[in-house]
Specification:
The protein is mainly alpha-helical. The protein has a 3-stranded antiparallel sheet.
Amino acid sequence: MTSSNRGTAVDRSDIQKAALAVGAVFLLVGILGFVPGITTDYDQMSFAGHESMAMLLGVFQVSVLHNIVHLLFGVAGIVAARAARSSYLYLVGGGVIYLVLWLYGLIVDKDSDGNFVPVNNADNWLHLLLGLGMIALGVLLSRRTATTTTGRGRGL
């Protein structure tokens, strides 16, 4: 079994480890979004929409929907980490999703019903960094995985 295919934690490729780590962080963030104290103004959390005044770490605006999205995104990363190709798709595809979410956050009126996720300026900057970081991880680590598994630098 090669490291670019399914495997245990011992023989995972770097891109699989990256997808697993990113997924685990998203899962943790999703859980922490439901923990009073870590999420300030927890009693003011709504299911969705800009009316939710709950703030993860007192900085990032969250709602029940926002936390559920983090949980699902985390599970997706953990599942994707089973193979190099799915890890690549998770990192690059997820990065693109986060860049779209960043653009959405720049465009949407923060006080409108269109801000259903919800997002604030801190979320926007985080989404930009996540998007760029995930794409960079996916692209750079896929090249390294392809080179080490084929010896010729071919794709996943």
